[in-house]
Each structure stands twice: as C-alpha cells, then as structure tokens.
C-alpha cells in the first residue's frame, strides 16, 4: 500500500483540496480522503499554519547574544538552524508523524518561493529523508483544477531551487535585520535616542524613498509663471486657448503682447485658422496583476494594499478568482477559451449586457510566452449565483466586480473619442485650444463614470469653422509651480515597483526594471504594513507621511547602502538567479556577511552627523518642555500645550500664545523658537489660500504672528 501525504500551507487551503475529493475522516490535524481514480489507495491532507517553522533567534545560539551590545556584533552563526514557531508544536508533531509513515509526500503549499520555503523547512526539521517528493502546481482552487493538478503532479527540481532562493533571502534578511537594527539603535542611544530602530533590507529603502519625496515637497518653493490666454466667442459657443509662451519673467510675456499690439481685456476680433480633428481609439486596460488591482482599489475605495491582498485571498479560497500573488498581466489560450465560453453567464452575473467586439485572443491580453508560474488575475470557471454574490462582504463584492469587469472589458469594443485642435489667430499671434469629444464609450460603459473635473469641462470645444471670425479677449495668466504630490498608500506599491525612475545610474535602472524594484508582488503589501507597524510612516486620509521616528531612521541610513533601492534590487536580481539555477545560496550569504562587516566598520562615523529627535517613544514629557524664552515676559518659556503653544507664566498673567497651524501649514517647534528669538523666519512654503503660497513670518508688537510677504527667499 502506498501512503500519500499532502502538505497544504494552511487549513483553508487543505479544506479546498479536500472538497475536490470524497472525505473519509476529518481530525484536528489532518483530513483522510477516500480512494478514487487520482489516489487509488486514498491520501492524507495535513497543513502548516503559515510558517510552522522559523529561524532560531540569536539567543538560541548563544545566551550572551540576547543583549544589544556593540561588542557582540556581528552576530553570524556558523550554521543557521530552525525551530518550531511558538504555539504551533502540536500541529508540527502531527505533520512529523504523518511524514514518517508516508511513502510519497506532496508539496501543496502556495506556488511561490515562500511556499517552497514553508514545505522544505518543515520537512527538514522533521528529519524525514529519502522519500519521493512531488509538487502540486495550480492557479485556481476550483474542484476540477485541483483534481487536474493532482493528476499532473510535477517533479520537485524547480521547487528545490526556489527553496534555495527563499532560504538565501530569509537568512540574509535575518543577518541584516539583527545586526543593522542593533548597530544603529545602540549608536543612536549613545547620542540620547530613546527608542529602538528595526532595520531591514527592503523596508529601510522603502521608508527612505517616501522620506525623499517628503523632503522634495518641504523644500519646494512655489514660483509664478506667465502665459497669454485668449477667451473666444464663436457662433456656437465659447472656448479658451493659450499662446506658445511660458515664462517666469512677466516682462518677456508683456513684450510679446506689445509686439502684437495686444492690450489686456480689450474686445477685439480673432480668426479660426485651422480645425484639426483626429479619431483616437483606446483599448481596455490590461488584465490585473496583484499590484494593478491594489492601485485601482486604493484609488477607487481607499483600500490599503494589504486589505486588497487579504480580500483576494478570501475570494481565491471561495474559488471565485485565480491565484492572487501574481505579477503577470497575461493569460494563455487555455484560460481565454473558458472565458469566451462563460462570457454570457459572466455578463448576467454582473448585470451588464453588450455584444462582444471580438471573441478572438489579442496579444495585448493573451500571450503564453509572457506567462511563467502564474497568469493574470481573472474570474474562475465557477460563475457565482446572485445569492453567492449577495453573501460576499462589501470589500469582496467590490474587488470581485473589478476583476470581473476588467476581464469582460477585454471582449468589449474600444473607447473612441475625437481629439480637436483649434488654432485661432489674434493680430498675428496664434492661440491653441485642444478638447475631446466622446464618440463611443465602448468598454468604459462597464465602469462607473468618474465626475468630470473643471479642466475636462473646460476642454469641451464648440463647433467652429475654418476662417470663422470670433470675438476675442486676451490677458496675461499667472500660475504657480506646484510641488510634487505626497504618495497615497496605493501609490506606494507602484513606487516600490518603479523606484528605478528615481535613480540616475543607467545600469541600476535596468536591474530595477528586470526585477521590478523593491520586494516582490507577494511581499510588497506586507512591507508597507511592517513600516506602518514600526511607526516609520503614518497614513492619514490615504496620504502617507514619514514620522519623526522615520526621519531619524532615514538620517541614520543616509549615504549607506541601506538607503539604496538599487542595492535591494541587485539582491533581488541575484535571488532570482538562484531560483533559476544560475546563482548560489552560499555566495549570496557570503556577500551579505561582507556587507554587514562593512556596515559595522563605517556606521559609527556616519551616525555622528545625525540629529537625534524625539520620536514620541521616550517617557519624557513631550509637552510642557521649554521651546524658547517668552518674548513678552521675563520669567516664562514658550511650551507645547498640545493644541497650541503658550507661555508657562500664564498663571502670572502672560497671555502670549501661538497656533499650531496657520493657513493650512503646521508650525513646528523650530519655527516658534526662531520667531521668539529672531522675531522673524525665513520664507516658508506650503501655506494654503485660494492658491498655495510662500511667505516669511514675523512677530508684531503685540506678539501676534503676521505674514511678511516683503522678505525675499
């Protein structure tokens, strides 16, 4: 009798496998299947609980490694060992007993490097050796796909390479995390820092990229620029146009006005010189990978990337969508053929109806050469009943309908619009107006129509003829340059994928393109959750800010390879080579070791320049500590009173107080200190009125803060 034991990654996955067969017995730790054509002698499904096994902690090797001390570094064991994760001993014992009795073991964990890691780490720790191992490789948990997968099991060659890749990543992350976190924390604590820093190979450069954007915004000085705008009145309506000039120097724009004898707001005549119409076609978006879905869901419903992944996992386990952790936007002919077959039923389920533009595969969506382990996220063959859809949570409904409509859009017609360019001549000066008219909504009719912005409404052009005389008024239009926008949480995923755009070195850009930036499709949302949990960033109204603790981290790692997305990308690139059999785990770990020695040698000098700030982790009272001597009374100090700044001698009658916010800008303790000591600040940006503006601040005779527009930057 051949005993077959299948290891699933978690109980829900084991249940989905068991549902495809007949169950003989269920226990707390395994499910027994009845014999059938796939398993003539039956089979047993057991499971991990995610990571049943983890790397040992430093103190598991040497008790003295428990303390965070510089003279203990570097902490690098000669050999890395695993242990059973806390609270999971009972399940591990059950898996071990089943493996010992098995004749064939099947790895049914997730089909990626972490799935390989989970399976082989458990197998190694059980001590079971020399038994044949097969690999289940599927993209859907539907019953027929599960049965098909078990009937077409793969060898474990690719799996063993992925295990090497995963172990190299896990060990290197352990080495960098343990050594760098202790090194930077202890050195900063010597300078008075009261918290702890957690430093990681991917999380630290991610925080650093967000910090760079925040610094760009803070240091941005808004400047005016000038254009000539024309307002035109034609027979069938009004429109606007711009002359081909854009200058910071208003005098140059005025000179062009004078050259053409144009006066502001004077009623004159213009002539339509040309009307150019082009019909443009827009194809439906590509099929979703995890990151494109995370982006759309954040834009539309403000869902965080990890919320999207969790929701996707639930939909996957409900057999409604295909494998979630995919970075691919293509499917093969095999998936396309079942989508075509189900087209009518999918439309019914989504309550939409359209005649397909085409039911033939297009290379934009269907390309086997672009599909490796996983294809794009699409609905499964299982078309849900209205009852099943109604039983989904709001998040599940939203995400499911986005996947479904995105897939249906591939069959719909193109979105067609007409782009019109009007050139209007006023006293020899040409003004250009562009606008678009919708011709056919096509695939866009499947999606909710966004509300039109003011610019889009302005871009609707009236019908005009060549040579038509139009009423004209021209004026000099003043606009302000705008700072870059802060990241939303959904944009972090794209920022991590395309951080190559933020790098100057050509070769580094190529490497980042090849591996798609920081982290992998499966890990990015987890990294964002980690840096939120570490309090390096906070998300307010979907906008991401770096905290004081995050700024301390970034100033500490500035200039080191830990702030470099290129380094992380090179690591990721080499890890991929290990997974493809072209790189070695030993080489990777050896290079990580050299990197840590270099870090220990160079960091003490670089930490000297870091200004230690209060990260809110200290127990010292942040509030009521003096910021500056009160400018009005001899005894008081200005202190932070939580909602405002005020004088500590208020009980003695000093009424001086300053707001925490002024015209939409937060006033920092440093700004208040400068105002108290110097009575004025330098020009600051980021104030908000009808338009954003920059100004200096000054204290008047009554110790009130006033704007000082005369001070030049």
UniProtKB/TrEMBL annotation:
Its EC number is 5.6.2.1. It is an enzyme of class 5 (isomerase). The keyword Plastid does not apply. Gene3D superfamilies: 3.40.50.140, Topoisomerase I, domain 2, Topoisomerase I, domain 3, Topoisomerase I, domain 4. It catalyses: ATP-independent breakage of single-stranded DNA, followed by passage and rejoining. It comes from the Bacteria. Keywords: DNA-binding, Isomerase, Magnesium, Metal-binding, Topoisomerase. PROSITE patterns: TOPO_IA_1, TOPO_IA_2. Residues 159-600 form the Topo IA-type catalytic domain. The keyword Repeat does not apply. Belongs to the type IA topoisomerase family. PANTHER family: DNA TOPOISOMERASE 3-ALPHA (PTHR11390:SF21), PROKARYOTIC DNA TOPOISOMERASE (PTHR11390). This is DNA topoisomerase. It comes from Pontibacillus chungwhensis.
